């Protein structure tokens, strides 16, 4: 009799438990969107924590034991609900769970535990392994589910199943002022570290604004790990990534090409390119512009017009065709140079038509000349454009490089090609010096730059009539660089941060913070509107500008004088010979 009662009791309990899990899974199907169920248990645990009836029939089930571990994110999918049966060897099973959920630790998980399991220790372990979405069921307690609140302090929550609206409450929605640790890399303009008037260390830069706002949307406080941040220099990237993977830093505020971080947890922040900026080349001196007018190109037109006109005139007079060098040339020359001329008396309508053509040609050539002259005087062309590294070498220009970039560029070119142009690179060991030179657009060097800083320098040059630095379209180190932020492995902020970052891009906040950074750097004196000392932006015409014209003029007069003298001597000589 007692035995029967006990047996019935045991049966009810096990049934009740089964339905508890079944009910929860059924509710979770409405709450979450999972496409797979992962069942994980130790091989040694003979009886199982679940029956087939607990699980929905229409969803694929992965049944693993604690010895198996797969990189599920890559080989399967990441929309998983995992159910874990914990028994004696619970350590092993949890380890197996962590291995299987690598990079998808946010997966909702139900832990089936025994009545004597220390749940707070278990939850602490889950928290340490970045698993926030965890429910625990106790063997003999089907009425309650256990979960934990991770922020601001770890706290176990016991809930009655019948009262639950939502099993997995988002932990990150309100972090109740918990701290998020960030570490700035001190690369302008993303993050800039400085000391304020009271000597306290401060951080600004658009990445700083981004993370500060991110923290405030989670109701968290941002804590900057000053103890790891160097006072002046840029932080070592390797050291930074190590700190974040060891759990000291939640957000390493560094953005770099993906080659710098050889692992998967990166977030693409910007699409950029890496190119050279160089001091704008000098304009062609005004005097030299006259030698560039290419007026000789008008010669065929002049000859053609002169031929047509003279031929038409001879026909009119009833003469045969012949090339004559009469007054016609003068007419045509005057016409093409847009000078006034007197029409010959009473020409016929055919001749008038040819003069009309002359008039039209004169208008055309004059306008073309006028327009190009004006363009040259207002936007003079560059004298000798630098189009390649070889050009830079000929012009004795140098490129300033920060040490780490030097090796990257060396690898990019290959040893042999690089050897040919090695002497145009000048290397500095101080990132501060490099950033200062580049930020102030010191024209002694050309600098490699990405599309992150270049817009700021362009903003700086907006007050100049003529930019002092230009972006090279020919000398590009890398046309497409994905600028990424490396989050620590399995970061709990990954999803929230990705969404937040995309929203700031879409709403234009990212650009706003970017522009605001420029103003802040101006105020701090780290950037300035550069002054163009090299040449006066506006200059009146001076005598020297017409040097070629004067030379032609004087040369013409001297030549005429010589011809005149030769004519006189020839005349005299002729007279003498006839007299003799
Ligand atoms: C699981 O691994 C343990 C230790 O590595 C081993 O003793 C055991 O036999 C393995 N079980 C199975 C089913 O492979
Ligand atoms: C846990 O293991 C013990 C002994 O191996 C077994 O009797 C018990 O039924 C198991 N419990 C579960 C829930 O699997
Ligand atoms: C459970 O684990 C926590 C933390 O590991 C510990 O403080 C507590 O004493 C443990 N409780 C029991 C009953 O062992
Ligand atoms: C944000 O966190 C603070 C604790 O730092 C808390 O007092 C406050 O209620 C939280 N805000 C909201 C909206 O929950
Ligand atoms: C960065 O730090 C690592 C060790 O933390 C060191 O091996 C490496 O040489 C450092 N790199 C630079 C550029 O200083
Ligand atoms: C040349 O252009 C200027 C400015 O556009 C204009 O004022 C001037 O009349 C033009 N001269 C001739 C000859 O077309
Ligand atoms: C930079 O540092 C390296 C070694 O750290 C040294 O060999 C080199 O001379 C230094 N260069 C300059 C310009 O100081
Ligand atoms: C340009 O001139 C200003 C003063 O007129 C001076 O402060 C600045 O240093 C000069 N810049 C360069 C690059 O020489």
TrEMBL record:
Keywords: Cell membrane, Glycoprotein, Membrane, Receptor, Signal, Transmembrane, Transmembrane helix. It comes from the Eukaryota. Residues 1-18 form the signal peptide. One of its GO terms (cellular component) is plasma membrane. It is a multi-pass membrane protein. The keyword Transmembrane helix applies. The chain crosses the membrane at residues 547-571. The keyword Nucleus does not apply. InterPro entries: Insect_Ionotropic_Sensory_Rcpt. Its main location: membrane. It is found in: Cell membrane. PANTHER family: IONOTROPIC RECEPTOR 20A-RELATED. This is Ionotropic receptor. The lineage of its organism: Eukaryota, Metazoa, Ecdysozoa, Arthropoda, Hexapoda.
């Amino acid at each position: 009799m007692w035995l029967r009662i006990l047996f019935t009791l045991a049966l009810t309990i096990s049934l009740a438990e089964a339905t508890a899990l079944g009910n929860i899974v059924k509710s979770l199907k409405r709450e979450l969107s999972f496409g797979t169920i992962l069942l994980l248990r130790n091989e040694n645990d003979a009886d199982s924590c679940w029956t087939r009836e607990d699980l929905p029939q229409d969803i694929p089930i992965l049944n693993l034991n604690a010895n198996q571990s797969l990189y599920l994110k890559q080989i399967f999918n990441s929309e998983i609900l995992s159910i874990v049966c914990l028994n004696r060897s619970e350590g092993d099973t949890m380890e197996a769970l962590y291995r299987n959920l690598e990079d998808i630790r946010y997966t909702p998980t139900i832990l089936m535990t025994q009545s004597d399991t220390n749940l707070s220790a278990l939850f602490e372990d889950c928290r340490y392994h970045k698993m926030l979405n965890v429910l625990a069921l106790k063997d003999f307690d089907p009425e309650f589910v256990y979960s934990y609140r991770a922020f601001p302090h770890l706290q176990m929550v016991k809930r009655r199943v019948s009262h639950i609206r939502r099993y997995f409450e988002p932990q990150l929605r309100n972090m109740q002022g918990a701290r998020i640790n960030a570490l700035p890399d001190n690369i302008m303009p993303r993050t800039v570290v400085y000391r304020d008037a009271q000597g306290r260390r401060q951080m600004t830069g658009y990445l700083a604004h981004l993370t500060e706002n991110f923290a405030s949307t989670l109701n968290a406080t941002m804590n900057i790990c000053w103890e790891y941040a160097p006072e002046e220099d840029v932080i070592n990237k390797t050291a930074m990534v190590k700190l974040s993977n060891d759990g000291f830093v939640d957000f390493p505020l560094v953005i770099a090409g993906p080659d710098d971080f050889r692992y998967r947890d990166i977030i693409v922040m910007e699409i950029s390119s890496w190119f050279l900026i160089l001091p704008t080349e000098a304009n062609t001196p005004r005097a030299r512009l006259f030698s560039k007018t290419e007026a000789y190109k008008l010669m065929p037109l002049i000859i053609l017009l002169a031929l047509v006109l003279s031929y038409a005139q001879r026909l009119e007079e009833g003469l045969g065709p012949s090339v004559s060098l009469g007054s016609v040339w003068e007419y045509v020359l005057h016409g093409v140079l847009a000078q006034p001329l007197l029409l010959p008396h009473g020409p016929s309508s055919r001749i008038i038509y040819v003069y009309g053509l002359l008039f039209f040609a004169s208008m055309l050539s004059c306008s073309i000349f006028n327009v190009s002259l004006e363009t040259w005087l207002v936007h003079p062309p560059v004298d000798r454009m630098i189009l390649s590294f070889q050009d830079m070498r000929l012009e004795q220009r140098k490129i300033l490089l920060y040490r780490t970039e030097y090796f990257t560029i060396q690898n990019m070119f290959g040893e042999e090609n690089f050897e040919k142009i090695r002497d145009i690179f000048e290397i500095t060991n101080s990132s501060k010096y490099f950033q200062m030179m580049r930020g102030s657009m010191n024209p002694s060097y050309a600098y490699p730059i990405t599309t992150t800083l270049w817009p700021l320098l362009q903003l700086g040059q907006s007050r100049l009539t003529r930019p002092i630095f230009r972006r090279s379209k020919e000398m590009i180190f890398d046309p497409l660089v994905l600028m990424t932020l490396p989050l620590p492995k399995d970061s709990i902020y990954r999803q929230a941060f990705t969404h937040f970052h995309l929203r700031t891009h879409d709403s234009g906040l990212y650009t706003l913070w970017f522009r605001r950074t420029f103003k802040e750097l101006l105020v701090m004196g780290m950037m300035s509107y550069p002054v163009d000392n090299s040449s006066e932006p506006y200059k009146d015409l001076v005598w020297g500008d017409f040097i070629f014209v004067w030379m032609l003029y004087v040369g013409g007069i001297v030549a005429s004088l010589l011809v005149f003298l030769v004519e006189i001597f020839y005349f005299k000589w002729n007279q003498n010979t006839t007299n003799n």
